[in-house]
Amino acid sequence: xxxxxxxxxxxxxxxxxxxxxxxxxxxxxxxxxxxxxxxxxxxxxxxxxxxxxxxxxxxxxxxxxxxxxxxxxxxxxxxxxxxxxxxxxxxxxxxxxxxxxxxxxxxxxxxxxxxxxxxxxxxxxxxxxxxxxxxxxxxxxxxxxxxxxxxxxxxxxxxxxxxxxxxxxxxxxxxxxxxxxxxxxxxxxxxxxxxxxxxxxxxxxxxxxxxxxxxxxxxxxxxxxxxxxxxxxxxxxxxxxxxxxxxxxxxxxxxxxxxxxxxxxxxxxxxxxxxxxxxxxxxxxxxxxxxxxxxxxxxxxxxxxxxxxxxxxxxxxxxxxxxxxxxxxxxxxxxxxxxxxxxxxxxxxxxxxxxxxxxxxxxxxxxxxxxxxxxxxxxxxxxxxxxxxxxxxxxxxxxxxxxxx
Length: 405
Ligand SMILES: Cc1cc2nc3c(=O)[nH]c(=O)nc-3n(C[C@H](O)[C@H](O)[C@H](O)COP(=O)(O)OP(=O)(O)OC[C@H]3O[C@@H](n4cnc5c(N)ncnc54)[C@H](O)[C@@H]3O)c2cc1C
Description:
Layout: E1 4-11, H1 15-26, E2 31-35, E3 49-51, H2 52-58, E4 66-70, E5 72-76, E6 82-86, E7 92-95, H3 97-110, E8 114-117, E9 119-127, E10 130-137, E11 140-151, H4 159-162, E12 170-180, E13 188-192, E14 202-208, E15 211-218, H5 227-237, H6 239-244, E16 251-259, E17 266-267, E18 270-272, H7 288-308, H8 313-342, H9 346-356, H10 359-368, H11 374-385, H12 390-403
Parallel strand pairs: 1-2, 1-11, 2-8, 5-13, 11-18
Antiparallel strand pairs: 3-7, 4-7, 5-6, 9-10, 10-11, 12-15, 12-16, 13-14, 14-15, 17-18
Helix pairs in contact: 1-3, 1-7, 2-7, 7-8, 8-12, 10-11, 11-12
The structure holds flavin-adenine dinucleotide.
Flavin-adenine dinucleotide binds at residues 11-17, 34-37, 45-50, 120-121, 152-154, 157-158, 174, 176, 215, 255-257, 274-275, 280, 285-289, 291.
């Protein structure tokens, strides 16, 4: 005996969950979204830097949850030299992720999705050709029958595992503090590459004139130290941090970033989306854009399948095909860029930043640079890299990255 029945149930109230619930409801499906925490968007595990395209995908305009408009970035090489990229155009926003997520949740509810917060999925089974989700809500165990379950339950999500779709295998480890910082330009983020951040990069994202989110992400396979230990070292030894960052912080977050998409994201009566499906840019670790874009498709396909009565894996594979058509190549290229960058030493990075700083190259970056689609810029850079010492090795790798898909 089940307590409730829906066409589509979405597990997770992050950007992927709220977007899929919104689009499932817009597709005419009776939709329920559940979120285990008592408030959507909390606890925050994000820097809150989202591209302007992310807002377009989410169909929203900048609101009171935007702290800063970002027009460019200062990128620092291991030797302390730097280049500045960007221009006049607003390319990204620094947002309050908690408020951003709540805004998206309100949009899902406005589209007709029912929302149950403080409700945790604890099991998934089958009965009479439907999925049966076991949840605990307000201390009470309930069973919810549904045509399709969408697992938008994040990087540690259970829905994929329970339905045999596996789990994201490779994870990066991230940590960030919000602290007093002597911000040089509130419309620029700062990025630091090199051996002090093995396998990824460190960042400073301005919140206002004198506060910033300072964090880093590392590849645990490349270091014995934790992300937190690396951040402490970075704050203690990087000359810019010594000069501008205050000791102590007002907020700290830790979290994981999945690297590489799941090989299959649809099963009988189940779809997975967002971090749960590894739909995260391997070059920046940003998951809101990709997650929202793929989740939209998940909502549409789930509604169509549930209303047609065919929720088989065969029918739901439309989602897997469509999201790979939309961003599969970008993710694959991003993975290759990530691998190549992971092999570079400090000297290579110094040379690379010098190369990026050449006027013609800088112009290419400023014209074609796209945080969500770096493959376009990579293609343009290939020609320019010709003849450079570093690019004897690097160019071959870059070319392989782009051409193999
Ligand atoms: C340090 C760090 C910094 C980052 N910075 C950025 C950034 O600046 N820009 C960017 O685009 N991305 C960033 N990311 C990545 C971004 O936070 C994620 O990609 C994004 O939140 C994924 O959205 P999602 O909806 O898939 O998952 P989540 O946002 O993780 O949401 C999943 C939701 O599911 C809920 N849930 C889980 N299990 C259950 C269950 N059993 N029952 C009910 N609910 C459940 C969780 O409570 C959670 O609310 C960062 C990540 C880290 C770790």
